[in-house]
Amino acid sequence: EVQLVESGGGLVQPGGSLRLSCAASGFTFSHHYMDWVRQAPGKGLEWVGRTRNKANSYTTEYAASVKGRFTISRDDSKNSLYLQMNSLKTEDTAVYYCTREDPYSSGYLDSWGQGTLVTVSS
Amino acid sequence: EIVMTQSPATLSVSPGERATLSCRASQSVSSNLAWYQRKPGQAPRLLIYGASTRATGIPARFSGSGSGTEFTLTISSLQSEDFAVYYCQQYNKWPPGTFGQGTKVEIK
Prior knowledge:
- Chain A is mainly β.
- Helix content of chain A is about 0%, strand content about 50%.
- In chain A, a hairpin with a 7-residue loop joins strand 9 (about 95-100) and strand 10.
- The radius of gyration of chain A is 14 Å and the shape is globular.
- Chain B has strands at about 5, 10-15, 20-25, 35-40, 45-50, 55, 60-65, 70-75, 85-90, 105.
- Chain B has no helices and ten strands.
């Protein structure tokens, strides 16, 4: 069974930093592109960014709203995905979901974690 | 960026009735369209990809149709566990894989 378990959320002040982790199990993590998606209170889903797999040089892409502030990384030896968030703004307050892209890297997200809440507030 | 618009925002349906949800893209996304279900406190779940292919384990009462800019998710006979928020997502022009704002299906 595919499992994605996020951790690391919490309360942080504007301008601060936070690192989210996602522990993956039940599938060959190294094969898949992995994405982060977020949902702000009362809002819809927003794609945050993705990391490709080793075969595609672990390249990353980001939404314009987080580019330059957020960094996605992965450790295939630990089956883990990370999201380093710097220069946080109040509008970054959201539940952050770790997601797995489909086996053909088409772009749809076939597995999701339960999410971890990040609150940016003074 | 492709904008996805879902309608209606809220759909009130009685158990056993049919529910029809719409999703429109601001430009063609071919058949690169997915539907997700999100229930409170649960991880979102993939229902449909490729506009009409059910994901593994998804009941046959869920069906998707459409291509280009107009898409529909139909739930043929609503069960109690189907009351949730549904999102469409295009992945034709990526990134970003833009989502619709969601349709809440509530009990009438």
